[in-house]
Batch of 2 targets.
Target 1
Amino acid sequence: MTFHPSSKCRHCGTDLDLLVADLGATPVSNDYILAADRFAPERHYPLRAYCCRTCRLVQLEDFKKADELFREDYAYFSSVSSSWVAHASQYADAMSKRFGLSSTSTIVEVASNDGYLLQFFKAKSMQVLGVEPCKSVADYANHEKGINTRIEFFGEEVGRKLAAEGYQADLTAANNVLAHVPDINDFVAGFREILKPEGVATFEFPHLLNMIALNQFDTIYHEHFSYLSLIATKRILASQGLRVFDVEEINTHGGSLRLFACRADAAHPESPSVAAVMAKEEAAGLGEDAVYASFAARVVETKWKLLELLIDLKRQGKKIVGYGAPAKGNTLLNFCGVGHDFLDFTVDKSPQKQGMFLPGTRLDILAPEAIDAARPDYILILPWNIKDEVMEQLSHVRDWGCQFIVPIPVPAVI
Ligand SMILES: [Zn+2]
């Protein structure tokens, strides 16, 4: 028996009662614990995803304000990821060519971070403007990279204001931000306000279809308010006067969509790919209730399977450690109740995380060399999306008979 909150859909206001995943109450996945706070208390929040039966927006129940979730001290700088910067460079070239952008064009990016993307448009002599709520990365963009950046939460009013100030956009970019905004209607309305009559808005976000098809329930965490399909997103954009005219399936973040939208009355012809992706989602059942209800059951089954596997190994006296400290790993470990009783520690390549502790489980995050000292029998790979890369890097552990465990899509020893 599941208790349903009185939350309403953040797009259309329908009561939410179709559960997609109940992951219990967990700490915020990115709140790594400092050594000094290791024995201090920690706040837990319910982590439940619902699907709206009317508009099909998959979303977390609404219970806290966005500003509690975006703490300054966990600022992430996009430029540290070389593959992400390369993705941005390719985007700038492709969009400039396709839409005939020139030195008279204006490009606006929302959630522009440290200017990792706009730098490529600036290099083409275009007018650029970043909008970024996180002060530390915005300051870096303004002062270190010379990328004109406003410290704001984007929405209808900000879009209108910036357009009036001369930033009417030929192209807007919004990468991996649509899922993070609490008021999705107001956010989307901002693009209608800031676009030129024939301007183009692009949105990139992880595709719900992959989460459902590949059992990626650990990608659900508090910072992600929405889990987006084309079915739902097209409808949300339309409600705010925007029309989706093209969509691309791209490889980032375990499978994403890039949507191209314009004002409802703009001339951009609709590409056949819009109908094709819609048909793919309909065929997978994303337009009906059943697939969401069966996902909720599969999440529980995955927990049982992982625990059966780990308990069996511990009863045989095996030593197990974790690899990685990604946000999704925290969802998995906290939901499954896998802590010091199963894993001796986890390791992470990022020096910022080493010496800290995982939220909830309080597992130590050590440097990867700790694996060689401990010589475990099994390594549980938390960032399963890069499992091949991890097994390649750690191939030497096979010398002492160590094996790998991957939790998703199905817990297995490989
Ligand atoms: Zn709805």
Note: The first strand starts at residue 18 and ends at 26.
Target 2
Amino acid sequence: MNTEQRNELLYQALETELGGVQIYTTAVSCAVNEDLKKEWQEYLDQTKNHVQIVRTLFERVDLDPDTETPGRQVVRHIGESLVKAMKMAKSTGQPEAAQLVAAECVVLAETKDHLNWELIGQVTKKATGKEGKAMKEAHEQVHPEEDPHLYHNMGWTRELWIDSLGMPAVLPPPEEEKDVKTAIGAARAKQTREDMLSASR
Ligand SMILES: [Fe+2]
Ligand SMILES: [Fe+2]
């Protein structure tokens, strides 16, 4: 195991969660759909909790949460850019368009968040001792929440776009209704959207 790169992954994971709090806070302010607003509020609360879980993990593996790395700065830059993009969209005074931008920004952020925790899961398979145990416990708490964060948001983004195009949309998205937790589940949910549409007609 390359310990230096493992630490880099943890610094980036902390920065991603910190950025996530800012991103969801801004996204909630862009939400028009009430169900989506509720969902983003819930994910905001979970992301705040993820920050705490990673901070506790840092204490247990003896890492300084304030250590800067070039990779971490890039993650912060992307997070700040996503917040800026949402504010830019919001300032144009088209709430539906700003909501779409926010949904896309959340998917971009959650793609990184999901990857981090998938990789932390890979590391825990090899890690041993006190550090391995700490990472495993953090992973068990966070990873189950990252699946819906990514897949449900992808579903929302697709359906909001379809709705904006003037075509029949499934809102809330099938991923939400079927409580999707895996990539395979997300693909299956997406396939059922046509059936859900004809059933509701
Ligand atoms: Fe997270
Ligand atoms: Fe997340």
Note: Helices lie at 3-30, 34-60, 70-90, 95-126, 129-164, 174-177, 183-191, 193-200.
